[in-house]
Automatic annotation (TrEMBL):
Keywords assigned: Signal
Organism whose genome encodes this protein: Deinococcus rufus
Signal peptide annotation: 1-16
Record-given protein name: TolB family protein
Xref: InterPro entries: 6-blade_b-propeller_TolB-like
Coiled coil region boundaries: none
Amino acid sequence: MRRAVLAMLLGGTAVAATLPSQPILSGGCCPGAVWTPDSKALLFLDGPPARASTAIYTLPAGGGTVTRRFSSVAFYSPALKWAVRPGSGDATTLERLADNRRFTLPTRGADVVWNRAETKVAYARSATTGNFDRRVTQIYVADVFGSPKSVATVYGGGPSAWLSDRLLLVSGKTTAGARDRALFTLDVQTGARRTLRTALGFRGVQVSPDGQQVVYTVSFDSQARNGLWLQSTAGTAPRRLPDFGAYLWRDARRLLLIPLRTDGSPHVLRQLNLQSNAWTTLGDLGDQVRQADWRVSPDGTRLSYLSARDGNVRVLRLP
């Protein structure tokens, strides 16, 4: 009875129809496929022998002809406005695709975090030796084509996302010897910080598309702290979600979750509506996602994943 009541509260996880999906690539192709900003196609890295050369290729979300999108292999910004190429030394080159204009930043190979308009970046520059938890890390921000400015110092952390053009979400320790990290917002103009949460560490930090919510996992900490948490970036109390697994934002008000199950059964897709605070089981995949390789299209209508069954990318429409 208790299990049945819990299932009702969670939206009926015991009953899940299989969601129809379509393989759009074959031959075990390809891990790491991402959506284009217009949600109409996917991009993926491939090369010989399947393709003539190593490049970034694209194909329609419904399947079809594969064409080469970028002949140069690089990290492309979410809006596909920039190509980012780390160098062999400190410098990373950022190239604006519209006019091929370039500038460099001394990121030491670190990822850059873009604001929504892709006019600003943030990155962390850490010491190259020593225990990561104790390494001093400088956080920098820069306007495109501008000079970087140091805005914070943390230990064992870095920037997670821009919440607005002046607010960064950051995690890290305040001193090398501290036990806990803080997850905090940072005003890059004034340096003001607002701590959202402290814990041994934060994993899977994901900000909602509107920057209003953040979801994260705490593990290897106390029982009271461990779990999957949802919190407003304005600083309200965190809320523990009643399940655990892989998660992605579908849009600003809906969070998708594939609960962790160890029985080898097909992965189930669940959805939390933040407005109604209601969980819904959308269905199962009839399959499993390989290596947590799944993406939601930017318009929130479709989902792609790498099939554990055959290693091919499949796409389904979300109900």
